[in-house]
Design brief:
Elements lengths: L2 E6 L7 H12 L4 E6 L5 H6 L1 H4 L2 H10 L14 E2 L17 E5 L5 H8 L7 H9 L5 E5 L6 H9 L2 E7 L4 H19 L5 E7 L6 H18 L10 E3 L7 H8 L4 H8 L4 H21 L2
Parallel strand pairs: 1-5, 1-6, 2-4, 2-5, 6-7, 7-8
Antiparallel strand pairs: 3-4
Helix pairs in contact: 6-7, 8-9
The chain binds adenosine-5'-diphosphate and magnesium ion.
The site of adenosine-5'-diphosphate has 16 residues, from helix 1 and helix 10.
Pfam family, one: AAA_31
Protein name: AAA domain-containing protein
Organism: Sulfuricurvum kujiense (strain ATCC BAA-921 / DSM 16994 / JCM 11577 / YK-1)
C-alpha cells in the first residue's frame, strides 16, 4: 500500500516545492510514484512544462476534464503519466525512471472549489487518495503555504509529513506556530501519522544565522515537538539538512528535475544526489519500520 507523504510549512519560499519535486524523482527511480501539486500558485505545475512535453490540445483537455478541482465535487480523476517526459525518443533516460504520475494544479480555482463545498470538505483529498493510493508506492504532495480548507485536506490525507524549515532567523517562530495548527487539526480529527520528518533547507554553513537556526532545530525544536499532546506521540526524525546551492534553481530554470540535470549537465554536483538518495533511504526505512 502506498504511503502519502506531504511537504508542509505555512511559510512560502522555504523549499517545499523543490523538495517535493526532487524526492518524487528520487523515489520514482525504482518505484511507482504519484506527485500532486496542491498549491493554487501552481509552481510545481509550471516547472513540469507540460505544454512542451505534450500536445497543447491534449493538455488543455486534460486540465479541464481531469482537474483536481473535481475531487471537491466528489468525482474521481486520472493522474497524468509523465514518465515519458524523462525519456528521449528512443525511450532512454539520463537517470533511471520507473513510473511517475502527476496531478497538476489548475491555479487558484482549486482554492475556490475547496471553500465552496458544503459539509465534510476537509476529507475529500483523503477520500480520493484512499481510492488510488494502492496503485502507487509513494504519493508525494506539494502543499500550499497557508492554513485553509485545502491545507486541512493535505494534513488529513497524509500518512507522513515532511516539515521543511529554512535555516534562517525567525524560521523557528514560524515552525512553532505551525506545530500548534497541526496539533489542533490532529486533535479535532483524532488523526495521527506513521512518521513526522523535519527537514532543514537552504542551509549555508558559512552563515552564523544558519548555523544558529540549525542548532535550534536540532535542540529546542525537536524537544518541543514532544510537548504537544497529539504530535508528541508520533515517531519523529530530523533529516539531514539540504544545503543552499544554486544547482537547485539552475535545474528548475531549465525545467529539469534535479537528478537529471546534475547527471546530464553538472556532474560536479553529485554530492547533492548522494544526499537525496540518503534522505529517501531514511524516509523509506522509517516508514517501513513504522508499518501501516
Ligand atoms: N537548497 C536550495 N538551495 C538554493 N535554492 C533553493 C533551494 N531549495 C529551493 N531553492 C529555491 O528557492 C526558491 C523557493 O523554493 P520553493 O521550493 O519554490 O519553496 P516553497 O515551495 O516553499 O515556496 C526557488 O527559487 C528554489 O529554486
Ligand atoms: Mg511551493
Amino acid at each position: 500500500m502506498g504511503s502519502v507523504i506531504s511537504i508542509v510549512n505555512q511559510k512560502g519560499g522555504v523549499g517545499k516545492t523543490t523538495t517535493a519535486q526532487a524526492l518524487a524523482r528520487e523515489f520514482a527511480k525504482t518505484n511507482k510514484v504519484l506527485l500532486i501539486d496542491f498549491d493554487g500558485q501552481a509552481t510545481l505545475t509550471e516547472l513540469m512544462d507540460l505544454n512542451k512535453h505534450f500536445d497543447n490540445e491534449f493538455i488543455n483537455e486534460y486540465m479541464s476534464t481531469e482537474s483536481i478541482v473535481k475531487i471537491f465535487e466528489r468525482a474521481s480523476i486520472k493522474p497524468l503519466d509523465i514518465t515519458g517526459i524523462l525519456k528521449d525518443e528512443s525511450g532512454n533516460s539520463i537517470v533511471t525512471i520507473n513510473e511517475l504520475h502527476f496531478i497538476p494544479s489548475p491555479g487558484n480555482s482549486i482554492v475556490a472549489a475547496a471553500e465552496s463545498v458544503s459539509g465534510g470538505k476537509d476529507m475529500l483529498l483523503n477520500k480520493y487518495l484512499q481510492k488510488v493510493k494502492d496503485e502507487y508506492d509513494y504519493v508525494i504532495i506539494d502543499a500550499l503555504p497557508s492554513v485553509s480548507t485545502l491545507f486541512r485536506n493535505v494534513l488529513l490525507a497524509s500518512d507522513a509529513l515532511i516539515v521543511a524549515i529554512q535555516t534562517k532567523t525567525n524560521a523557528i517562530a514560524g515552525a512553532n506556530g505551525f506545530l500548534q495548527v497541526l496539533n489542533d487539526v490532529l486533535e479535532d480529527y483524532d488523526k495521527t501519522y506513521n512518521h513526522l520528518f523535519i527537514l532543514p533547507t537552504m542551509y549555508n554553513k558559512q552563515r552564523r544565522d544558519d548555523k544558529e537556526t540549525l542548532a535550534e532545530i536540532m535542540g529546542s525544536y525537536m524537544t518541543s515537538l514532544k510537548t504537544y499532546t497529539s504530535i508528541g506521540k508520533i515517531p519523529t526524525t530530523l533529516l539531514e539538512e539540504i544545503p543552499d546551492r544554486t544547482v537547485f534553481s539552475n535545474a528548475q530554470a531549465v525545467r529539469y528535475f534535479l537528478q537529471d540535470y546534475i547527471e546530464g549537465f553538472d556532474t560536479g554536483k553529485r554530492d547533492i544526489l548522494l544526499l537525496l538518495e540518503n534522505i529517501a533511504k531514511v524516509i523509506t526505512n522509517k516508514l517501513e519500520v513504522g508499518g501501516k
